[in-house]
Amino acid sequence: MTTKILLSVGAGILGGIFYRNNIIIDNLNGLIDLGLCMLLFFVGMDIGKNKEIFNDLKKMGFKVCLLPLSIVAGTLAGGVVASFFTDLSLIESSAVSAGLGWYSLSAIELSKHSAELGSVAFLSNVFREVLAIILIPFIGRHIGHHETIAAAGATSMDTLLPIITKSTNSSIAVISFFTGVVLSSLVPILVPLIMRLQ
């Protein structure tokens, strides 16, 4: 799966460099949205065909909430550790990590404090997503299924859901979607809240 992802991205880069069809270039965002919607549609079909998934979620009960909370705790701990190796303060580094992979929102929110901090938030969360795209198949095969969701963060409900599903199973896909919704709901609360501590 990792090889397919890298080959697809590489082919896309080469296509962008050498293929100059204005119809495709001008409609690139719409085509990306269409492709993502198709991927999510097929993930939904895969989830829907397995009737036991929702019963399994009910059986898990509150335990299903522990995964997003653990991801938040681990990501914020990573932000604290990163503050010792960068010029960012403890609060700034924690706020950047609180983006949880949602690069657009965290970048906009932190740009209110400084353009530099907004740029760091954007890049660190983009790098998280790119690394997750590359590493999720390996993580799913060699480390564990729930850990694939942790790597994706907030993007586990949309962009990375198809990769997580392909690398794990449809039961994990439901947990991934739920976790992504929870994490995406927490980002607009956590980022400004942490910055207020400064």
Summarize the structure.
The protein is mainly α. The protein has helices at residues 2-18, 22-26, 28-49, 52-60, 63-83, 90-97, 103-111, 115-142, 145-152, 161-167, 170-196.
Keywords:
mainly alpha, 198 residues
Give me the secondary-structure topology.
Layout: H1 2-18, H2 22-26, H3 28-49, H4 52-60, H5 63-83, H6 90-97, H7 103-111, H8 115-142, H9 145-152, H10 161-167, H11 170-196
Helix pairs in contact: 1-8, 4-11, 5-6, 5-11, 6-8, 6-11, 7-8, 7-11, 8-9, 8-10, 9-11, 10-11
GO molecular function, one term: L-lysine efflux transmembrane transporter activity
InterPro entries: LysO
Keywords: Membrane, Transmembrane, Transmembrane helix
Q: Could you explain the architecture of this structure?
A:
With 198 residues, this protein is mostly helical. The protein has one domain. Helices cover 81% and strands 0% of the residues. It contains eleven helices and no strands. The longest helix has 28 residues. The chain is globular.
Strand content: under 5%
CA gyration radius, whole angstroms: 18 Å
Structural class: mainly alpha
- In total, how many beta strands? 0
Provide the succession of SSEs.
HHHHHHHHHHH
Number of helices, where a helix is a run of at least 4 consecutive DSSP H or I residues: 11
- Unreliable stretches (pLDDT < 50, length at least 5) are none
Tell me the quaternary state.
single chain
What's the structural domain tally?
1
Principal-axis shape equals globular
